[in-house]
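We emphasize that the prediction below concerns an isolated chain of 118 residues; any contacts that depend on oligomerization or on bound cofactors are therefore not represented. The input was used exactly as deposited, without trimming of termini.
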Amino acid sequence: MNISNEILANPILRNVQEKFELQTAKGLAKYGETVNPDSYSVEGWLNHLQEELIDGAVYVETVLSKLNDMQLIQENVRLRNALKFYADVNNHPTEFSEVEKDGGYKARQALEGENNDK
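Result of the prediction step, given as a token string:
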């Protein structure tokens, strides 16, 4: 398979290629040319890259913040659903078994007896 077919077969690569083509078209419309190495000095290109990377860091921080907000919202929904379940009187038994009435008392006594036997 050749590279063009690989790109066409892979939706991620296809999306990147489409974005690259759109970005190139924007650059042509704005500057009248594609990237020209003589447009900046080496230091100028590095400064430009640094500015783009700083913008990228801001975008990453924004997305991470939004993800955190989404996770908090999901956790809030989960906890509210649990509270609604436990608040609903229909979810509580009206009669309790002997074990539930005991509340673990006999088990604690038995364990204390084990400790006293040693």
